[in-house]
């Protein structure tokens, strides 16, 4: 009789401990971004979910995530679309309003998502390039400029050429694959 009780007790203790272990695991993955972890990498920058933005601002280059530039920079970009890096990228007034609001709401110095804080800091006030932020320059100073000559790259602005999951907001260095060069082993 005594032995049966002991057996039951140890079984119950075992169950409780297992349940706690599973719970603990879930919490950890949640913390790292469970879905990202499951697919191999978590988003560093909040991915673009705005269809209008994607339609209007991703025909010449990828839809840069709002969290890659501070609010003041986005304001300057949007106020100079008639001469946008040598192109005319003007929008209809209603698109202008909608997209400006979307960019401001997710700007690097507005959101606390992932690495946006790093992209927000420093550089010339109102700089219009992500590629001129101190964080960007520091992260790419070991990447030789001659790599950019490959027809599939062109310039550092072409994030998605090397960061194959850039559209998902994933910029992890382990996910880099440079056309004409291959995977990046630092
Ligand atoms: C007609 C083509 C075109 C459209 C449409 C366009 N862009 Fe651009 N954009 C460019 C070019 C060209 C560059 C410079 C790329 C380079 O230097 O290689 C650029 C660069 C940029 C950069 C700076 C990238 C860097 O180097 O850090 C940002 C930010 C940007 N665009 C935002 C936008 C936004 C926001 C929209 C929508 C309102 C938009 N673009 C629509 C052509 C376009
Ligand atoms: C020519 C290829 C290339 C292009 C284009 C490029 N990158 Fe990178 N990027 C790299 C490489 C290589 C590294 C890793 C550098 C290292 O660790 O020394 C890197 C690192 C990074 C990192 C840091 C990753 C980490 O794990 O610490 C971020 C963030 C990043 N890039 C963002 C961008 C963004 C945003 C753009 C576009 C505006 C861009 N990159 C364009 C090649 C590129």
What does this structure look like?
44% of the residues lie in helices and 2% in strands. The chain is mostly helical and 186 residues long. The protein has a two-stranded antiparallel sheet. Helix 4 (71-78) packs antiparallel against helix 5. The longest helix is centred in the N-terminal third of the chain and has 31 residues, at 2-32. Residues 56-57, 59-61, 64, 69, 77, 81, 84-85, 87, 89, 91, 99, 129-131, 154-155, 157 line the site of one heme C (HEC).
Mean pLDDT: 87
By DSSP, the count of extended strands is 2
Strand percentage lies at under 5%
Unreliable spans are 20-40
Shape: extended
Secondary-structure content class: mainly alpha
- Please count the helical segments: 8
Bound molecules: heme C
Main beta sheet: strand number and arrangement?
2 strands, antiparallel
Oligomeric state of the chains? single chain
Q: What's the SSE pattern?
A: HHHHHHHHEE
Number of self-contained structural domains: 1
Straight-line distance between termini: 64 Å
Helix percent reads 40-55%
Radius of gyration: 23 Å
| Strand arrangement across the biggest beta sheet | 1-2
Task: Give me the secondary-structure topology.
Blueprint: H1 2-32, H2 34-39, H3 51-57, H4 71-78, H5 93-106, H6 116-120, H7 134-140, H8 159-162, E1 177-178, E2 182-183
Antiparallel strand pairs: 1-2
Helix pairs in contact: 4-5
Bound molecules: heme C (2 copies).
